Structures are given as structure tokens and as C-alpha cells.
Amino acid sequence: MRTSLAAPAAALTGVLLLTACGSEAPGQPADARPGSTSGARCGFPHDPAARTSGGVEITGVSGAALGCGTGTPSDPPKVGFLVSNHEGRPLTYTVEFTLYDASGGPLTNGGATVVNVAPGRTARGSADFGEVLRNAEGGHVGIAKVRSVPADETPVASGTCPPSGVHVTADQGDAAMGLRVVGLHLRNCSAGPYRVSGFPQIQLQDLAHEPVTGVRVLHGSGGISTGTDFDVPPHPFTLQPGQSATSGLMWRNTVTDGTNVDVPYVRVVAQPGTHAVTVTPELDLGTTGKLGVGPWAKDDSGR
């Protein structure tokens, strides 16, 4: 039985996509918490060091659900932030925030993507949590995760077709009993047929976008699991405009002796000579030291 690899591309709750060549939609101003001590701001992280991470700085938090400012309790919390690109190439940032209750317990996540931040530039962004949380009053917002990929390697599922003629994305994946499978999806967005064969080329990268060593990238399941199509021999096929193909990544998060290996970024070259795309499947490889890669197969699901 084939493991399903055709789930929708991953998306954060309440994501806002912002173009960011300079500065963008301004972040919401923070309101002083009534009766607060000097320097305390409504909805800000209690620890000042938690207000910045990975080039992101929280600049303001608002929302009556938090007790910040005016409005009705149904107003969702909103966080304004700055993204600063200290690298030498344009980057697209995906930022995930966590909303905590008054006792510090996590309630929900929200996020935003800020695209094409130029080197040395700072861009503004904002994100909300998209729902009413009755027990949010007195809580605060913290930065949960920051991911950045080269702007020209950002995966997109639609929009302008790149010179390669294909859009490449990754989905949210499936997990069961320690087995992880993330689907890779290729869609022919060109006006003509597109020939596909073999396996995608994979490079694992750490948080600094440096190559990860000590992990074997295997064609097929590599014995990680059975009962999937990872071990079906690849065969060439043609995609007509609008048609899609799937591949996938398979691993286990087993931990025995050694050091856990976590891989936030995977650089994918769908076919030799095509432009690379960097996806963020968050591989938690444990101490297994191997990752299986499935062959490209035509997707007849109609998705």
C-alpha cells in the first residue's frame, strides 16, 4: 500500500505573506499594561531576551483578548515584529509565535512569512492568531521559531512559473510510531510537457545553512520501513501542463547512543540542471543517521 504523499503544502496558522524589499505593513504598537511596573508592556515576553531571535524582534502586541488596548474580547491577539537580514543575500523569513496564558502555559501558535528581505535591510511584519481565546488575558507572546531561506529558493505552489517550468513544495507529512514521511510535490507549471525521472537530489542543511554531515541519504527506504512505494524502481514519465508528481522523505526519530540530529532545511533539486528549492521539513532524525528518498512518481490523485 502506498503511503499518501499528496497532502497540501504546509502552512502556519494565520500566515500573512508580505513582500519585503524594505519595510512593510507596520507592526502593531504595544500598549502599557494597566497598573504595570515601569518598562512592562502588555503582551510582551516577560524575559526581555525572548523578544529577539534569529534576526526577529517583537515590536508590539495588541488585542483585547490579551487585555491589551481597547476593543472587544473577540479581537484576536496580534503581534508586530521587525526582521533584519544580516546575511549577504535576499532571504524569505517564516516566523512562528506562541501565545502563552498568564501562567506561562502555551495556548496556540500563529505566524507570518516575510519575503525577499534584501541584505542589510529591515522589514516590518505582523501576525495574528486567528481565533478568540478566552483565557488569554494577562498572557504574552513569544518567538517560537525563525526559519529563513534564500529568496530565490523559496518554494511556491502557484504564481509565476520559474524558468525550470515546475513548482516544488513539501507537505506537513505524516507521523506514526516514530516513522516520519514528508511528501515532496512537483507540478508542471509550464505551457509544454515536462519529462521526469529518477530521484530528487537532496542536500541536508543546519540552521546556518551549512551541510549536515554524518547522515546517509539513501535512494529508496533504506530498510527504514516496508509497505510503501519508496522501493519501487524509478521510471521516466511525462507531465502535461498542470499535472503533478510526488516523491518523499522517510526517516525514524529513534534515539539510542550518540547525538540527536535535527535538520531544519532540505535543499531539493527536482531534476538535474533545474533550480534548487529549499524546504523546511524539520527532520528529527534522532541517532538513526539515515534518510530515505522516494522516486518521483506521477500523481494521479487530481490534487
UniProtKB/TrEMBL annotation:
UniProt-listed Pfam families: DUF4232
Bilayer-spanning residue ranges: none
Family matches, as InterPro entries: DUF4232
Residue ranges constituting the DUF4232 domain according to the UniProt record: 161-296
UniProt keyword annotations, A-Z: Signal
Record carries keyword Hydrolase: no
Signal peptide bounds: 1-25
Organism domain of life: Bacteria
The name this protein goes by in its record: DUF4232 domain-containing protein
Organism: Actinacidiphila paucisporea
